[in-house]
Write a structure and sequence with these properties.
Helix content: 40-55%
Structural class: alpha/beta
Oligomer: single chain
Number of helices: 22
Length: about 475
């Protein structure tokens, strides 16, 4: 029967564990010196080897002839059915009844080996009552009992439990370690993969070796021959760096229609838009570091502005925002020109003045009289600025009509664009004027424009609807 790669090539010895030297050294020295604590807490992100280390430790402490702290792999305990080890999934066995049952069984000696080992995975999922029941067992454990707790969220464990365990923090794997392990597993599993593809998988795995092996297995089934970079991109729905830079370039030049058309074509190809945002953040971060290294301040400021807007977009997507809508709004905002920096008043006041010719110095009163008069305000009190005046020949729609119109717009993308728009009555037609060209470009998309027309027709009658800028 076929087994997944991450199961078939799970480490069986401490020396097989990748990238967790500190945790391996602590556990191996504990077995070698016979100084085994009653409870260990293995914490870290997913795919970093917590359960694998716990299983190796369970075999090592009960091995009949360990070699330098390693399980021999040939004795009855190492080859047996594991009667000395009990694995518990705390996500599905999280109540007080399960822990009470564990306490009853923990009093008895193991059927084989020195220790009765309990591996509790996702231990943070236990209820408060279950933790209280487990605490007494951790305070005064029987001599033959060993707990190996694993969790991805150690901050959710009570401090009373944390203080009674030896805590080992497992860090995410380095990309070079993941790449080397992938090439090793591919060779053993007879999978043809080039180094560029292995490097790309390692970068996309986010430090999780299990995720990397899963992607390698997926790509092996997707490829006809050798697994290459394009195979990996197609399998996980990612885009190449050059394609993502195309989007960044279009937003930088302000070509919103081309950027939206590019986005629609990539979605039709099956691209993962959330992964697109994550990859764009990675690219802009590298550009920011490169700009600082070259001391190119203008490029660094632009990269920082883009990185800040992408970080906000990523946070919105994590809160459940629709990826297509979020990226379209980001395109519209990122395409708008950055506000010009204003010179501080203090700097202008500190500019040096040309000295007066000898004999022509002015008194303080004369200097005050020669100051330029203040400019008149752009708009008088009680009058709206010229930028907000209605266009000639158009009458602003009634506020109640505008509110009813917005209430009938169901499309989220259309509503977001209309938040910065004004409805006008042109007599024979309705005109919707937008403040900025990016918002106008979003409203002119075929599906968005149809949503706006239908909502307006329902509340104001069926007349032609035109779109434009409010200038």
């Amino acid at each position: 029967m076929y087994r997944a790669l991450y199961r078939s090539y799970r480490p069986a010895r401490f020396s097989d564990v990748v990238g967790q030297e500190l945790a391996v050294r602590v556990l191996q020295n504990a077995v070698r010196r016979d100084r085994i604590a009653h409870a260990y807490l293995l914490s870290g992100p997913r795919g970093t080897g917590k359960t694998s280390l716990a299983k190796i430790m369970a075999r090592a402490v009960n091995c009949e002839s360990p070699v330098d702290g390693e399980p021999c792999g040939s004795c009855a305990v190492c080859l047996g059915s594991g009667m000395h080890t009990v694995e518990i999934d705390a996500a599905s066995n999280r109540g007080i009844d399960e822990i009470r049952d564990l306490r009853e069984k923990a009093r008895y000696a193991p059927p084989e080996g020195r220790f009765r080992v309990y591996i509790v995975d996702e231990v943070h999922m236990l209820t408060a009552e279950a933790f209280n029941a487990l605490l007494k067992l951790l305070e005064e454990p029987p001599p033959q009992l060993l707990f190996l707790l694993a969790t991805t969220e150690p901050q959710r464990l009570p401090p009373t439990v944390l203080s009674r365990c030896q805590r080992l923090n497992l860090r995410p794997h380095r990309e070079e370690d993941v790449e080397a392990r992938l090439l090793q597993v591919a060779q053993q599993a007879d999978i043809a993969v080039d180094e560029a593809a292995a490097r790309l998988i390692a970068r996309k795995s986010d430090g999780s070796l299990r995720d990397a092996l899963g992607v390698l297995e997926l790509c092996a089934g997707h490829a006809d021959g050798v697994v290459r970079e394009e195979t990996v991109l197609a399998a996980i729905g990612a885009l190449g760096e050059e394609e993502i830079r195309t989007l960044l370039s279009l937003t930088q030049t302000g070509d919103v229609p081309a950027a939206l058309a590019w986005l629609g074509s990539q979605e039709e190809r099956g691209a993962d838009l959330r992964l697109l945002v994550a990859d764009a953040i990675d690219i802009v971060r590298r550009d920011l570091r490169a700009a600082y290294a070259r001391r190119a301040q203008a490029e660094a400021d632009e990269a920082f502005r883009r990185l800040e807007s992408l970080a906000k977009l990523d946070a919105e997507l994590r809160r459940g925002m629709d990826p297509r809508l979020g990226i379209e709004l980001w395109v519209a905002q990122a395409s708008a020109p950055a506000p010009a920096p204003q010179q501080p008043v203090r700097e202008r006041a500190a500019e040096p003045r040309a000295p007066e010719p000898p004999g022509q110095e002015k008194t303080a009163a004369q200097a005050v009289q020669t100051l330029p008069a203040k400019r008149p305000p752009a708009a008088t009190a009680g009058r709206r600025p010229q930028a907000d005046a209605p266009p000639p020949g158009l009458t602003p729609a009634d506020k109640d009509l505008q509110s009813a119109f917005l209430a009938h717009v169901r499309d989220v993308r259309a509503r977001a664009a209309l938040e910065h728009a004004q409805l006008f009555d042109a007599g024979d037609a309705w005109e919707v004027r937008f403040r900025t060209p990016p918002l106008l470009a979003i409203a002119q998309l075929e599906d968005t424009a149809q949503q706006i027309r239908e909502a307006l027709w329902r509340v104001a009658g069926k007349r032609p609807v035109r779109f434009g800028l409010w200038q």
